[in-house]
Each structure stands twice: as C-alpha cells, then as structure tokens.
Amino acid sequence: MCCCFVEFVEFMFGVSMFFNAILFIPQAVKIYKTKNARDLSLTTFIGFNIIQLFTILHGYVRDDWPLVRGMGMSFVFCGMVTFLIFLYRNVNKFR
Predict the structure, then answer these.
(1) Cα atoms in the 13 Å half-sphere on the side-chain side of 86
(2) pLDDT of 28-67, one tens digit each?
(3) What Rg, from alpha-carbon coordinates, does the chain have?
(4) How many CA atoms lie within 13 A of 8 on its CB side?
(5) Weakest-pLDDT range from 20-29, 65-74, 83-92
(6) Residues 67, 59: contact at Cβ < 8 Å?
(7) Which of the residues 14, 35, 45, 95 has the least number of beta carbons within 10 Å of its own beta carbon?
(8) Is residue 82 within 8 Å of 25, Cβ to Cβ?
(9) Which CATH architecture has domain 3-93?
(10) For residue 63, how many other CB atoms are within 10 A of its CB?
C-alpha cells in the first residue's frame, strides 16, 4: 500500500480522535448553562464511557498511543457530560 495513503489515514485518524473528543464539549456547556439534563440518557453516556475506557486499554495493550490519547480526551469530556447529567438530575429532584 502506498506510504502516502497510510500516512494520510493515520493523520486523519488522529484528527478524527481529536474531533470525537471535542464534540462532547458543547453538550457539557449546554447542560451547565441550562442546569438541565432531563432529555439526555444517562445510560447512553455511561455506555460511551465504558466503551471509551476499554478502547483506551486496548490502545495501551497494542501500543497505539494516538488511540489512547484520543479516547482519553473523549473519556474526559464524555465523563464531564455524564457527571453533569447525574448532578443536575439529582440536584433538580431536591428543588
């Protein structure tokens, strides 16, 4: 396979890992600003976090550091959303 193609795919993989991670930020900001997470599925975001954790572990075992870094960022930002969903669902119950 052409070395340029492989390099392009690897570069785009790194870029996509970055965008995968930052796409969680707008959701976290919206939840934080509105203090409401009623329409979001906590189960879905917990599932995302579990998948990301095992993907990080897979990348670590395989020495795939772009995967580890990208999924690590996703795990953090998705974790923020997960935490905010949990927080505002429980805070709003006591108001």
Answers:
(1) 10
(2) 999 999 999 989 999 999 999 999 999 999 999 999 999 9
(3) 16
(4) 5
(5) 83-92
(6) yes
(7) 95
(8) no
(9) Up-down Bundle (1.20)
(10) 8
